[in-house]
Every structure is written in structure tokens, then in C-alpha cells.
Amino acid sequence: MILPWKILTSADYAVSRWSGGVTTQLAICPPQAIYADRDFLWRVSSARVETETSDFTPLPDYDRLIAPLEGEMTLWHDGGAPVRLTPFAVHAFSGASATRSAGTCTDFNLMLRRGRAEGSMEALFPTGPMALKAGPQEEMLALYCVRGSCIVSGGKACSRLRAGETLLARRSLPLLLEPEQGAPAALMLCRMRSLG
User: pTM for this one?
Assistant: First the structure.
């Protein structure tokens, strides 16, 4: 059976260093895009912030969403008021802002090319079967398993999503998530749609 989604593992990820730590790129669109060239529509990644304070890379053409997965962080945009983020709290901001960060943590990121892509990000903590309704044909979904594991089913297809893995799917199919017993699940869900 050809699955209607792809399960990405650490073998599929791209790891790079930045001024404050290490970033793991989980998925990028188009797939052949290179982050450093700034020619992508969207990018899903997770970064390990290893220094107590750091400056975010300027991304003037992108809108960003970020959430800590472990630890906490405080952000300042353009020298404004501090924004304190606790685990799984999602914060949206402009990549054009001069952003400073304080606190060591592991975070999760979604970057969207302004005017060419839109999307959302949220944390999911299923304790039983959880349905994800089908989205538009052109919408993409990235589901990253932070901890625990889930059985993902849609139509006649079924896969196990383990901690550290990402499910990437086109959202024309409703999905059902079922956490496995003894492994409380935490997941990050990103939805992306091209405007072009």
C-alpha cells in the first residue's frame, strides 16, 4: 500500500549550527530549497538554544511561530516588552523584527514566506482518539512527535509515529490519532498553505 503521508526520521533531517546553538530542519518546501538561500515557502524546524542569551537570525521576508518544547525562553522584539514563553506556548512574530532571546531550551519553529504562504501551529496532547479534520487539497500538515508515540490512521492506511519523528501529509484526508498505552503523547501540529 502506498501511504498518503511520509514519516520523516532523523536520517531525513538537516542539522546546522547557528550563533546560539543547533537547529534541526525537519521539513522545507519546496523540498530542494536551501534555507540559507531564503527561497523557501515554509520551513519546520527545532532548535536547541545552548547560550543564555542569543540573537535570532533576521528573516525579513518571513513570518514566524515559535514554542519551547523543553525549558522556557523570553523574547524581546525590537527592544520592546519581554514575552515569556513556557513549554508548548505558541508565539507569532515577524522575522523582520530584531529579536533577542534569553533562556536555554529546545524550541519548535514554523517559518512562512510572507504573502506567499500562510499557516498555523499548535500543541496536541491526545489522551484518547483524536480526529483531525481534512483540510484543503493544497494544505500540508506536519505532525511532530515530541514525546510518547501515536498510531495515525487515515482511510485504510495506518502508521506509528514515534518520538522525534515527523509525519508530513497533504491534507485532503481526515486523520485519527491514537496515543499508545503507557506513552503519554505530546505533538506539535503545523498547517501550511501556499497562496501562489
Answer: 0.93
Q: For 122-151, how does the pLDDT look when each residue is reduced to its tens digit (9 = 90+)?
A: 999 999 999 988 777 778 999 999 999 999
* Range 118-194 has CATH code 2.60.120.10: yes
Distances (CA, A) of 96 to 29, 58, 124: 20, 6, 29
Do 190 and 110 form a contact (C-beta atoms < 8 A)?
yes
Q: Which CATH fold would you assign to the domain 11-115?
A: Jelly Rolls (2.60.120)
CB neighbours of residue 181 within 10 Å: 7
At 48, which helix (H) or strand (E)?
Answer: strand 42-49
As a whole number of angstroms, the distance between CA 50 and CA 182 comes to: 31
52 in Cβ contact with 102 (< 8 Å): yes
- Residue 48 in grid coordinates: 536547541
